[in-house]
Design brief:
With 139 residues, this protein is α+β, with helices and mostly antiparallel strands. It has one domain (17-137). The chain has helices at residues 17-31, 37-51, 59-67; strands spanning 33-34, 72-80, 98-103, 109-115, 122-124, 127-137. Strand 3 and strand 4 form a beta hairpin. Helix 1 crosses helix 2 (37-51) and helix 2 (37-51) crosses helix 3. The longest helix has 15 residues, at 17-31.
Length: 139
């Protein structure tokens, strides 16, 4: 008779926003600059797992919490898109993004780019797809 052994599911816990913010601050104070969202997530995860080995966090949540910390500046490196598309939300912080408008020679308003008033992200019509994030400590 074969006894089936159930694999133990690895329990995961989600750290509080304050614990994540503390870990992000600690990592960036020590390193000053982190060159990608994935790298920052790995470093934050190592820091959090020293406290609790079951903590887990996604790269998107790390970026969102980092946006809330005033001492951190986030730069987004973008890639060019040749197809003009209207965007409704900021690709960095997901808040409302406003069109940058100018008047052309015929005195008509035209959209020349987009700007986020929340995080400062700005782009022209061809470059608004973020490829890589840089996190800088400015505290």
């Amino acid at each position: 008779m074969a006894i089936r052994m159930a694999k133990k599911k690895k329990e995961r816990q989600i750290p509080s926003k304050s614990k994540v913010a503390e870990a992000i601050r600690s990592v960036l104070q020590a390193r000053t600059k982190v060159n990608s969202q994935e790298e920052l997530t790995e470093l934050v995860m190592k820091k959090l797992r020293k406290e609790n080995k079951t903590f887990s966090i996604s790269p998107i949540r790390v970026k969102r919490v980092a946006l809330l910390i005033p001492e951190i500046h986030i730069r987004a490196k973008t890639r060019r898109m040749h197809k003009s598309a209207k965007i409704d939300a900021c690709p960095v912080c997901e808040n409302e993004i406003l069109p940058l408008k100018m008047k052309n020679l015929l005195n008509k308003k035209i959209t020349v780019g987009y700007k986020c008033n929340n995080c400062g992200y700005q782009s022209d019509l061809e470059a608004f797809v973020p490829m890589k994030y840089h996190f800088l400590w400015k505290g």
